[in-house]
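Supplementary Methods S3. Complex input for the NA7-bound model.
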Amino acid sequence: MPKEVFVEALVVGAGFGGIYATYSLSQLGLHVKCIDAAGDIGGTWYWNKYPGAMSDTESYLYRYSWDKDDLQTYPWANHYVYQPEILEYLRHIVEKHDLRKHMEFKVEMKSATWDDKVGRWGVITSKGLIFARYLVNCLGVLAQPTYPEISGIETFSGRMIHTARWDDTIELVGKKVGILGNGSTGIQVMTAIAPIVAELKSYQRHPQYSVPSGQGPVSREYRRSINSSYDEIWKNVLGSAVGFGIPEVSRKTMEATPEERQAAFQEVWDRGNGFRFMFSAFGDLTVDEIANEEACKFIRGKIDEIVTDPRKAAILKPTDLYARRPLCDTGYYQIFNRENVDVIDIKANPISRITEHGITLSNGEQHKLDIIIFATGFDAIEGNYQPLGICGRNGTTIQEHWKNGPTAYGGISCANFPNMFLVSGPQAPFANFPPVIESEIEFITACIEHAEKSMHDQQTEGKVRHVAIEATEDAETGWSALCDQLVEGSLFKKTSSWIFGANIPGRKPTTNFYFGGLGSYRTWLQGVIADSFRGFTFWLD
Ligand code: NA7
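Predicted complex, serialized as structure tokens:
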């Protein structure tokens, strides 16, 4: 990369969002550059290459909806796609649409400063300076891994590795492995490695509710039926709340008889998928504690049926609400029937320290380990922006702007950060990410198209040189208040997880998502466009 580069749009990040943003903005005829700190495309799926990494959105939806021809022809073998298949798919899209020419890797954005006088961003990267009229941040939702603070961690003589920084050269066969973290990531990696390691110990803080994913090969007939109804499928997904292609019912749990309830839970358990279990049997599991407890009882019953050792089963059974990101698995509880797999309740018996040879618990028990895996999650959304020096109008930094918690109008734009857009930023819909990302990028493209047109129209009359589009403070505050209001009554608010930033010690939990549903969000976006980009100012100098 030359020391100074001038482009019209800079896309930061080359994952699902960055690839589509690069495509969409280059379709407008803009000079676009896309950079990523990673060595290649993939975003989340570039980094999260731990054993067993799999999307838990069904394969037919874990792709772009806009390439209709590709939807019909691109192969997928199973109901869920594993990480290498997702990377292969994204590479295929990039090659097919000749997007690599816009992309450069191992280029990290360090800071970005808006210059009002020339109407553009000056972005300092690890490889030089890029000037861009538009800055489109596609930094991902879960990109900053978090590590636990445990005394003695630096003394461990074995290998320590975070799942989001996996190294393919790590040798697991026949090793004694300890793992911290049993969220989506932890349960995937444990299920994958249990058969090959000598010992696997899960140091578990909160047990999790998980249901079968329904993974397995797809038949030709199934594929044919999906292909023949793809338009209808996407129409339903884009109009739904969670965007997972599942029925979203309103039936109330306690209005069903105990037998009907059992049958309804059994049906979604058999079909598979975490979101199906949470939203397709009954419509009130996430808002009614009594209903929620019925689902909890059902899953606890399954754990008792699956796990033969009552000690392990007791540790694996959650007692709190079923109100975190719903998990699904390909045989997670089953691995605890293996003699080489154990679960340790570190709430009852905390880790006292990591030593040279392994982990010591508070009761003095010592576990010899060769490898410690951290599946301990991420500093979600905000965490991606905190290390960056993003400075908007009048020297406002993003950290100052978000001192009371991260906000963005429509999840997309911040007041005083002109011509800057966020994809999967704070307060975007809590729904299946690919269709959320597509919706955001299509809206951002519409904003930029409008801004460009306004600028060019005026330029021909010799009136202006620059354009800047940004959310008003009122619009951003209003959106944030709406997000707070929408999450009221949700049981998700009563559990601690990354969804509210509650996994970061010392951070005040905030509403990081719009809980109004994908369909309503898309209707809102269309309304904003129809209403002459309500809530945005177009500043022409
Ligand atoms: P999650 O869902 O944030 O899970 C992190 C796990 O790590 C969870 O089990 C945590 O326990 C555990 N954790 C975190 N810190 C510690 C410490 N200090 N000690 C012990 N255990 C700890 O991250 P994932 O990567 O699994 O999933 C993130 C998202 O990726 C997921 O929701 C999907 O959207 C895809 P806790 O439950 O907090 O007690």
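The mean pLDDT is 96. The first helix runs from residue 16 to 27.
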